[in-house]
UniProtKB/TrEMBL annotation:
Organism of provenance: Halostagnicola larsenii XH-48
Domain of life according to the entry: Archaea
ABC transporter domain span: 4-228
PROSITE patterns reported in the protein's UniProt record: ABC_TRANSPORTER_2
Keyword set includes Transport: yes
Protein family (similarity comment): Belongs to the ABC transporter superfamily.
Keyword Nucleotide-binding: yes
Pfam family, one: ABC_tran
Protein name: ABC transporter
Keywords: ATP-binding, Nucleotide-binding, Plasmid, Transport
GO MF terms held by the record: ATP binding; ATP hydrolysis activity
Length: 305
């Protein structure tokens, strides 16, 4: 059994379906990213996994505990870390007092180690904290008891770019330690950098579930070519090439084939410059959200999804 097992899980609020017949699993030691725009059901799923709300039908297990079994879930929560999207810290107390409280409940064997990486001013009242400092305090409390599973809702929200990268490096290290990470994200590029697999949620339903390499391959590679003499080269006949366009002296196309035929085609010309890069994750996301016009504004980097 994996760290998370979700089976036909549904939460019906009456006027709207929060999540609809979700089924997936997260393996031990895996980093699993969950994507979807606001209202897609991400937070509903997380709150259901933590036993904060009850499913209408179906079920899920978290570290082997059925989310409908309160006693079993309370015991499992000793091995779970949780970082919510909206941190509800008491603004009048210091960060140190917050950590002391959490330590009294679940332990803090890694507190000093984590405070060396994430540096909230724990001696000051939280009312004086920036958004980033509050987020760092939340990360410390989520990991300081050395949990087996950490569930996070938009964990890097409010962190500056340097701290975001430090967080990503930290998460990769946690995977090496065997910690299972399940999180939703509002920064699409970080999913590519740290996740093993990603699930895409749309209106409460799972519309995509792939390992990250497969997901990127679905979008093909972006190829930009400039020939030495400005020769107009037609790559439209190359198997696997599509959307071939010319912009100034540059030929651009999407390539979804094997590399060898591409290199052979390039070798027949006097190539001055070539760039082959992975597709933006936003483009792949639009494969799931932009085909029927239901999402008029695609989620981009730095926006909530």
């Amino acid at each position: 059994m994996g760290a998370l097992e979700v089976n036909d899980l549904t939460k019906d609020y009456g006027s709207v379906l929060g999540v609809d017949s979700l089924s997936f699993s997260v393996e031990d030691g895996e980093i699993f990213g969950f994507l979807g725009p606001n209202g897609a059901g991400k937070t509903t799923l997380i709150r259901t996994l933590l036993g904060l709300i009850s499913p209408t039908s179906g079920t899920a297990t978290v570290l082997g505990a059925d989310v409908r079994n309160e006693d079993a879930l309370i015991e499992a929560k000793q091995r779970i870390g949780y970082l919510p999207a909206h941190l509800g810290f008491n603004e009048e107390v210091t960060g140190q007092r917050v950590l002391n409280y959490h330590a009294s409940v679940k332990g803090d064997r890694r507190r000093s180690e984590l405070l060396d990486v994430f540096t909230p001013p724990v001696e000051r009242p939280i009312r004086e904290y920036s958004t980033g400092n509050k987020r760092m305090l939340g990360i410390v409390q989520a990991f300081m008891h050395d949990p087996d599973l950490v569930i996070m809702d938009e964990p890097t929200s409010g962190l500056d770019p340097l701290k975001q990268e430090e967080f990503n490096e930290f998460i990769r290290g946690e995977r090496e330690r065997g910690t299972t990470i399940f999180f939703s994200s509002h920064v699409l590029s970080e999913v590519r950098r740290v996740c093993d697999r990603v699930g895409i949620l749309r209106e409460g339903r799972l519309v995509g579930l792939e390992d990250i390499d497969t997901l990127l391959d679905q979008g093909g590679k972006r190829v930009h070519v400039r020939t030495a003499d400005g020769e107009r080269v037609d790559f439209s006949g190359l198997d696997g090439a599509f959307d071939v366009t010319t912009v100034g002296e540059e030929i651009q196309f999407i390539y979804a084939g094997n590399y060898n035929p591409l290199f052979q085609a390039l070798a027949r010309h006097d190539v001055h410059e070539v760039e082959i890069r992975e597709p933006p994750l936003e483009d792949i996301f639009m494969h799931f959200y932009g085909t029927d016009g239901s999402e008029a504004n695609p989620p981009m980097e730095g926006t909530n999804v």
